[in-house]
Amino acid sequence: MSRFRPIDRKTAYLLPPSADDWLPEDHLARxxxxxxxxxxxxxxxxxxxGRGSAAYHPEVLLSLLxxxxxxxxxxxxxxxxxxxxxxxxRYLAAGSHPDHDTLASFRRRFLDELAGIFLQxxxxxxxxxxxxxxxxxxxxxxxxxxxxxxxxxxxDHIQVLERQLKAEVQQLLTLAERADQAELPDGCSLPEEIKxxxxxxxxxDIAKAKIEARASARFEQEQAAYQAKLEQRAVRAAQTGKQxxxxxxxxxxxxxxxxxxxNLTDEDSRIMRVAGGGFEQCYNAQAAVDxxxxxxxxxxxxxxxxxxxxxxxxxxELKALPESLGRVDTLIADCGYSSEGNIAACEEAQIEPYLxxxxxxxxxxxxxxxxxxxxxxxxxxxxxxxxxxxxxxPGRTLYALRKQTVExxxxxxxxxxxxxxxxxxxxxxxxxxxxxxxxxWNLKRMAGLRHKSVQCS
Length: 457
Known about the structure:
By secondary structure, the protein is α/β, with parallel strands linked by helices. Helix content is about 50%, strand content about 10%. The strands form two sheets. Strands 1, 4, 5, 6, 7 and 8 form a six-stranded mixed beta sheet that branches. Strands 2-3 form a two-stranded antiparallel sheet.
């Protein structure tokens, strides 16, 4: 008798098998499909005119994309291939096989509509008793753009390249005028070489114009801030009768700076400092995470390398959340978000801020964890009051939630789901793709929370 099970790959099935019979009951694909079936996809279905051949239903395409992003399959070509190879993708596609062009065009076409779907999923989480707003942890992470930092050109480097290319074009034109071109290398075509350099010069002219336009917009903002500071100093001088202390603000300088850059592949992306050192071509992805459920309740995308200006836009996103989810009462963020203006904005929105004012030591003395801060001075500034609050025992306990909520979410999105680089280009499209990533994370997390609640019950 053989010690092994028999191998038979040629016996046909008597009846066509059902993917529903093979997929486990608690599989993520089942939960994603059940959730999407409960959503109102009218904004998507109404966009189809009904002309031509029958289209794939948005429910099928959306479920394939969401499950793909939740499991690290982002490419439309890989999703198309998985509709043949993967049982879960075959289940979601209902035995059909949408081609990669259909999937890619659907993703690009309905990026704006994902905002409404994102809110519907949060409302579904509320109905399932998985989400109740209260304490929110805010942070940002740098995600690589679909562009290389080596495709970026600075204003200063463009001028150097222009001089070099113009000299090369002049040299090639001189060679073209000669009757004897024996000194040309084999295979060298003068018209092609000249055209290649002229095309590069034209591209650099466009890039330089865009850098100058950015510099002009920046100068207007800096000039407005400069005038505001001068007015504040003048008011202070009129009130006290003395010249304000400190150095007067420096007037901004018009025009582009030598280090101002633009990327020729994705001009909306920026070179940013990344964790671990170095610089990469990135976007700054923002997420506000509920500390109880670890669900992303609000998200945004910015071109700024720092987070200082992201509190007020995020407060507007939190205010727009459905009332059925409850009310945000506490906001936790690291020192990158700390400023007196941000503290005042949170208080005006009736949200208690816990914004770190400075980086803490990784290895403080053990007694420091149990000591209360000294009494606060009566004339303390908002920053000093915030530092005092964070050094108190309740403040330490609450601020510690940040490292175990929003940072793990980013870690799972990047390391488990594999989202370390965007596929789309341009800020508007990348914003929609980041929303799709957060939508996929929320459904993945909700599936885990529901499984835990079933086990506990």
